[in-house]
Amino acid sequence: MLSWIAALLTGILTAHLAQRLCFPYFWKDALYLMKVIRYGARLEIYKRTSLIVTIVDRFVQQAQRFPEKPFVIFEGVTYTYGDLEARSNRVARLFQDTVKKGDTVALLMNNEPDFISVWFGFCKLGCALAFLNTNIKSRSLLHCFNCCGAKQLVVGADLLDNLEDILPSLQEDNITVWSLGHGNSHPGVHSLLDKIEKSSQEPIAAKRRSISCLKTPTLYIFTSGTTGLPKAAVITHLQSLKAAGGFWAYGGTEKDVIYTPLPLYHSAASLVGIGGTIELGATCILKKKFSASQFWNDCRKYNVTIFQYIGELCRYLCNQPMGENEKDHKVHMGVGNGLRQDVWREFLQRFGEIRMCEIYGSTEGNLCFMNHIGKIGAVGRSNFFYKLIFKYDLVKYDLLRDEPVRDHNGFCQRVQKGETGLLLSKICSQSPFFGYAGSKQLTEKKILRDVFVKGDAYFNTGDLMAEDENNFISFKDRVGDTFRWKGENVATTEVTEILGLVDFIQEASVYGVQVPGNEGRAGMAAVIVRPECTFDGKKLFDLVVRELPSYARPLFIRLQESIETTSTFKHQKFGLVESGFNPSTISDPLYFLDYTEKSYIPLTSSIYASISNGQKKV
C-alpha cells in the first residue's frame, strides 16, 4: 500500500515537473482560456435568445444594484452610478420626441461626465452615437457627418468655437447643433444644459432601447486609415460587449479604481475603460487630459489600482524627474497597448512591480490578443486552443511592393515561427468584420480575398507581427499609408492633400520616420517645389498648424527633384523611410518644424543631434 502511494506521489511530482518544464504556461493559459470561453458563452446566449443585455443595460443594472457607489470621479467631484443614471434619463426624456430609434447622433466633446450622460441618454432612445475626434479640422469634420448620417450634434461648450467655420454648412444640411453650455453665443446653436436640468429623470421604457440582434450598430468611432479622411468604424453591441470584458479577463473586480486619462472618443477609453468599469461595477477616475506631472499624485489621492495607457503615456512618466516614494501607490495593473520593451523595463524598475497588460486590437478589427502572461515586449499569446477559436495567420509581405507575397497559384504564404509577417484575421461568423459606414469601397479595401483557398476572406490589420516558438506575439511595424505618432494613427494621404493646398508644392510624399527615444514614427514629407517657386517655411508652417492636428503635422521636410514611384505610379517610400532625416547622410535640403520660429527651418547637424539625444523634444 505504501509503495503504491509512493509511486502515485512520484508520478504526480514527475508530471508536475514535466508540465513546468515543457508547458510552463499551461495553468495560466487554461485559466485565461476558461475566462474567454465563459464570456463568449454569455454572448452566444445573447445571440440565440432575446435576452440581449447591452452595455447600457449593464449600467442600469449596476445603478440599481448600488446607486450610491462612485462611478466617475472628475476633477475632484464624485458622480455615483445613480447620479449618471438620473442624468442620462434627463437627456433621454429631453430628446424622446426629437429623435427616432435607429437615428445617429454625433458627439464632439472632451472628457467630462456629461460625455457619458449624453452617450447613455441617446442610447436609451435606441440611437447610435458617432464619437468625433476633437482634433479634426473643418474639412474632415464635415466628412464625418456624411459618413454616419447624423442629424443632431452635441458639442462641448469649450469646443464650440471649433465649429465656427462650418456652422453654415451644418445648418444647410439640416444638422441641429446643441451646445452643453448655458448661454448661446453662436446663432443657430441651441443651449442644452438648462434644458437638461429642467427635464424629468424618470426612466424611459427599456423597450425603446431594446435590440433583437447583437450586430446592431451602437457607435461610430472615427479612425484614420489608408484612405486619408477619417473613416467611421462601425461598432456593434457585440464589439462593445467584447471590449468591456478586458479588465475582467485580466482579473479586475468591483473593488478596483480605474484611472482613465485617454480621450473618450477613442475606443480604448470608451469601450475598454468606461465599458469595463461598468462590467466590473468599479469606479473610474476620469481625467480631462493626461498630465505626467499629476499622474502619480492622482493615483495616491484616489487609491487607483488600475490605469489605462498607450505606450507614449508610460514614456512620458519615465521622462519625469525622479521623485521620492515613486513606488508609494496602490496601482497593481496597467492595461493598454504600444508599450515598448525598454520603456516597459524602466517603468517597472522605477514604479514597482505593476502588471502591465497589453491588449492588441484595432477599433474596427475582428481580432484581439491579450498578453495575459505579462511577458515584456509581447502584445499577446496564442496556443492550440486559442487558434481553434480565433482564426488568424501571419503571411509574407513585400515592403517594396507594399503587398502580400503570393505564390504561383495566387495564394498567400505563411511565415515560419519567428519570422515577421502581415497579420490577417479570418472573417467568419465567430469573428465578423462590420467595416465602415458610408462606403462599401472603404470596407472592401480592408478585406483580402482568396488568401489560402478560393472564396475565403480575411481582415487585413495592416500590422507586421511575429510569433515566437513559445507562441508569444509581438508587434513589429505598420505597413501601407498609415503610421502611428503620439498614440494616434496618421493617414499620409490626408496629410498629402493638405500639403497640396500650398501654392509652391507640386508633389508631396508623406511617410513616418523613427526618432530615437520615441514610440511610433514622426511625420516626414518628401516635397517637389514648383519650378517657378521657392520653398516658404513660414507659409507651410501656417498651413499645417491651421489644417492639421499636432500629431499629424510633418516634423521634417525633404526637398527633392523627383519622387520615386512604382510601376502603378504609387509613391515608393521604402527608401525614404530607411534614410530617415540625418542631414549628414542626405544630400537633399532638409527642414524642421520649429514652433519657436513659427516656421520650417533648415535642419542642421546640431539640431539633428539635439533631437537624437533627446535635448530637443518633438
UniProtKB/TrEMBL annotation:
E.C. numbers: 6.2.1.3
Any one GO BP annotation for this protein: lipid transport
Catalysed reactions listed for this entry: a long-chain fatty acid + ATP + CoA = a long-chain fatty acyl-CoA + AMP + diphosphate; a very long-chain fatty acid + ATP + CoA = a very long-chain fatty acyl-CoA + AMP + diphosphate; tetracosanoate + ATP + CoA = tetracosanoyl-CoA + AMP + diphosphate
Gene Ontology CC terms, in alphabetical order: plasma membrane
TM ranges: none
AMP-dependent synthetase/ligase domain mapped to chain residues: 60-379
Occurrences of domain AMP-binding enzyme C-terminal (ranges): 494-570
Alphabetic keyword roster: Cell membrane, Fatty acid metabolism, Ligase, Lipid metabolism, Lipid transport, Membrane, Nucleotide-binding, Signal, Transmembrane, Transmembrane helix, Transport
Family matches, as InterPro entries: AMP-bd_C, AMP-bd_C_sf, AMP-binding_CS, AMP-dep_synth/lig_dom, ANL_N_sf
UniProt key word Lipid metabolism: yes
Entry-linked Pfam families: AMP-binding (PF00501), AMP-binding_C (PF13193)
PROSITE patterns referenced in this protein's UniProt entry, alphabetically: AMP_BINDING (PS00455)
Keyword Ubl conjugation part of the UniProt annotation: no
Membrane topology: Multi-pass membrane protein
Signal sequence annotation: 1-20
GO molecular function: long-chain fatty acid-CoA ligase activity; nucleotide binding
Localization of this protein: Cell membrane
NCBIfam families in the cross-refs: PRK08279.1 (NF006134)
Similarity comment: Belongs to the ATP-dependent AMP-binding enzyme family.
Name this protein carries in UniProt: long-chain-fatty-acid--CoA ligase
Species of the source: Danio rerio
Name of encoding gene: slc27a6
